[in-house]
Amino acid sequence: MYKLIKPILFKMDPEQAHGRMMRALKIVQKHPTLLSMIDRIFHYKNDMLAQDVAGIHFTNPVGLAAGFDKSCEVPKALQYSGFGALELGGITPKPQPGNPKPRMYRLPEDRALINRMGFNNIGMNKALSNLRRHSYDLPIGINVGVNKMTPYEERYQDYIKVLDTFKNDATFFTINISSPNTANLQNFHDKDEFSMLTKAIKDYRENHELSQPIFLKLTSDLELEGFKHILDPIVDTFDGVVLANTTQQRDGLQSDNRSEGGGLSGRPLFERNRDLVRWAYQQTKGTFPIIATGGIFSAEDAIEMMRNGASLVQIYSSLVYEGPGLTAKINKDIVQYLKQHGYHNVSELIGLDA
Ligand SMILES: Cc1cc2nc3c(=O)[nH]c(=O)nc-3n(C[C@H](O)[C@H](O)[C@H](O)COP(=O)(O)O)c2cc1C
Questions:
Q1: For a 10 Å CB count at each end of the chain, is N or C smaller?
Q2: Which part of the chain is the Dihydroorotate dehydrogenase catalytic domain (predicted)?
Q3: Architecture of the 2-349 domain
Q4: Active-site annotation holds for 347
């Protein structure tokens, strides 16, 4: 069906097409019969895909990456769409409109997207009310960002405000220091800035009861030398790492939109992010959970990320190109692979090639 709809969607501006999808999901979310219909079509279930990571039970390893549902508008509909987890947001303390439009571009020849959304979201309080409209039976992650207008030296407190607001509702958090679309946010990758952030998070955890795991999402542009400097504090402060967000590199791209500013996602990210995953897995000797994102279009890609050390994967750009049936297809093909190779559970793949 997506093959029929895709040409129509691809004639629209990408953000407008996304808006249409969101409106459709809002309609689905209101009707239990539609929810059970999409569950039947898009939700592939098999116990071989289930595992516990960072103390959370995931019924399958394919999660929705952050940025699709930035204000927790359609989590109920997404729950029935076959994902093993949802990462919602990025959410900031105050509402903000994000960057001027257009701010999202397709690069079809490269199976990629460029976005410079700039944390457009309705703010943490309204996003929380949206989330509370429903109940969920899959892990709900909150991707945490900072407001553009927050004074530079106070920005780490924005993360704490969002953690505190969602402390009773999220299953896990992801601290996003890697968006290229908020000026200087990536400075948190520098050792000194990073230690301010880790101190704030540790202090918060010591003084409040926050039992949920907190993951950290790094940029794809991180050099291994820089990663080395912050790896120990990452392991010491966080419960896992998401590798990795978009890149600002534009090497080898074919599409007309390649010189647009913002973060590049999709297929061109795959090898860079896989190498970050492998390096982090080796350095931590497989003891630290890794969630892989970036250019995962198939079960083969998901398996490669897992064999290189990821426990879980997340997808976004591939959904734009392949449609909502992709999650079930990846899960189904992973099970086929497990059976063919004599594995009993998806967790047996983690780190095999690292
Ligand atoms: C339009 C768009 C918005 C995004 N917004 C966020 C965000 O708010 N927070 C975040 O951590 N990542 C965000 N991302 C990055 C994705 O979560 C993901 O890490 C990245 O796109 C790589 O995965 P992919 O190649 O499967 O898309 C966004 C990506 C896109 C395309």
A1: N
A2: 48-337
A3: Alpha-Beta Barrel (3.20)
A4: no
